[in-house]
Specification:
- About 70% of the residues lie in helices and about 5% in strands.
- With about 140 residues, it is mainly alpha-helical.
- Strands 1-2 form a two-stranded antiparallel sheet.
- A hairpin with a 2-residue loop joins β1 and β2.
- The mean pLDDT is about 90.
Length: about 140
């Protein structure tokens, strides 16, 4: 259930950032000067990948991950479901690491909303990895 809650929170923040991207409004409660500058981050060239807003990709990530976090998916004996869930978590985490790198070393600014998505991605990755490890089938002798 923790994974579902994290996905819901991540989806909400990504939805807000997607709305912001398409409406061009400045993110709420985020300075637009200095090291913390949401506007600089969300309008940078790094805010779009293959023509798609990164925030919209976050929506897709959290929506797919939410499906993979459903209790019936965790109960599935199909190893492909377990593999897909873990692979999707790794893809999300890898993307978050790349975006943090871009913020710190390319854009030279941090977006608080983006950071919250990165933290939620880390949390869903961690809960997925721990859940996968603790529910793995015991090796047969």
């Amino acid at each position: 259930m923790a994974g579902l809650v994290i996905c819901a929170l991540g989806f909400a923040v990504a939805a807000y950032l997607t709305y912001d991207h398409f409406t061009g409004t400045a993110p709420l409660s985020c300075p637009d000067t200095g090291a913390i500058n949401c506007l600089k981050v969300t309008t940078s060239s790094y805010s779009v990948i293959f023509g798609m807003p990164v925030a919209a990709l976050g929506l897709i990530f959290f929506a797919v991950m939410a499906v993979l976090q459903l209790p019936r998916m965790w109960a599935s004996p199909d190893r492909r479901v377990r593999g897909a869930r873990m692979a999707w978590a790794v893809i999300g985490m890898g993307t978050a690491v790349w975006l943090v790198y871009a913020e710190l070393f390319r854009i030279n600014a941090i977006c608080l909303y983006c950071t919250s998505v990165h933290v939620l991605t880390l949390l869903v990755f961690a809960t997925t990895a721990i859940g996968t490890a603790t529910t793995a089938d015991a090796p047969e002798d």
